[in-house]
Write a structure and sequence with these properties.
With 132 residues, the protein is mostly beta strands. The chain has a domain at 61-131. Helices cover 8% and strands 22% of the residues. It has a three-stranded antiparallel beta sheet with strand order 1-2-3, with no helix packed on it. The chain is rod-shaped, with a radius of gyration of 23 Å.
């Protein structure tokens, strides 16, 4: 997903710090962002450059499994035992989509381009259901 490279300063004097890094436009990060423009802006502000390897992607990869065992109790009754495991492989899925403020978009931040939150690595669920 794209993100904005925000200058971190009020460049147009409107009192709001949402102006883009000079030379960039909306939703360029992680797609068409020219990192040299961000690094030039950081240099003007006395900061070190950001390496391209620091820009996080927000790809999603999860393998889920479910097992179910029906145990007859007589008549039309049964007991279902269900086990589910989500993200079996324990993949780190970074949380950028739908979560406000998780992608660091301030070009003056040392964490620019990082996603600071992740979904759970692995979860399991055990359920028992009685059917009659």
């Amino acid at each position: 997903m794209p993100f904005n490279a925000v200058a971190g300063k009020d460049l147009n004097g409107d009192g709001i710090i949402t102006d883009y890094v000079p030379g960039t436009s909306r939703a360029q990060g992680n797609r068409n962002l020219d990192l040299s423009l961000v690094n030039a802006w950081r240099a003007v502000n006395g900061l070190a450059p950001i390496p391209a390897s620091q820009i996080d992607g927000n790809g999603y990869n999860s393998l889920d499994i479910r097992a179910n065992k029906a145990i007859p109790l007589g008549s039309n009754r049964k007991l279902d035992v269900i086990v589910q495991v989500f993200n079996v492989m324990g993949t780190d899925n970074l949380l950028a989509s739908g979560a406000a403020g998780t992608w660091v978009t301030n070009a003056l931040s040392d964490s620019f381009g990082r996603i600071l939150q992740a979904l759970n690595r692995r979860q399991a669920e055990l359920a028992v259901r009685i059917v009659w």
